[in-house]
């Protein structure tokens, strides 16, 4: 049973889910109140379906929440936050948006990431054609890398401005996923803690 001061960590992975070496997975191992938002199809994403899964996870949680989203999970979180009723929005203490990709994602870019089995059709990324504009209704911070093959830094700056969030420069950290060597990513944990303690 949860106490009044407990905070649930919802991790929202991106395309392909987060592997064992991903910082989201490592955070889930060390934080007992962490819950991963599961998607029915990690490789052929449909934005509407992904948003429903996140919204359901939020609505099924009575406690305060912090969200840690990565990659395509960031766009999922941004869309979902705008659909929540006011009481649900007020339970969200903060959102960490890490390495959102530039939209649209082309099949060539997706296939070059090596996430699909040989011979598999390229994903269509249904519903993820454009970046949503408008200030987010909850506190949020965005973290972006300067050598992210899914997003030029200038586009990250544009998205942060569109969403009205502070942008943290991660330096050259690739796409900040399983292959970036971030480990448990202490800097990200510090950013998350600020929301939890607010």
Q: Please, could you describe this protein's structure?
A:
The chain is an alpha/beta fold. It has one domain: 3-Layer(aba) Sandwich (Rossmann fold), CATH 3.40.50.1820. It contains seven helices and six strands, in the order βαβαβααβαβαβα. It has a six-stranded parallel sheet, with helices on both faces. Helix 2 packs across helix 3. The longest helix is centred in the first third of the chain and has 13 residues. 38% of the residues are buried. The model has no long low-confidence stretch (mean pLDDT 92).
The average pLDDT score comes to 92
| Residues in β-strands, percent | 15-25%
Classified in CATH, the superfamily is: Alpha/Beta hydrolase fold, catalytic domain
Helix content: 25-40%
CATH structural architecture = 3-Layer(aba) Sandwich
Biggest β-sheet strands, sense, barrel: 6 strands, parallel
Task: Give the termini distance in whole angstroms.
Answer: 22 Å
What is the third-level CATH name, the topology? Answer: Rossmann fold
What ranges have pLDDT less than 50 throughout 5 or more consecutive residues?
A: none
Class inferred from helices and paired strands: alpha/beta
The shape, in one word, is: globular
With strands numbered from the N-terminus, the spatial order across the biggest sheet is: 2-1-3-4-5-6
**Contiguous helical run count:** 7
Sequence of secondary-structure elements: EHEHEHHEHEHEH
- Could you name the CATH class? Alpha Beta
Number of domains in the coordinates?
1
Work out the number of β strands: 6
Radius of gyration from the alpha-carbon trace, in angstroms: 16 Å
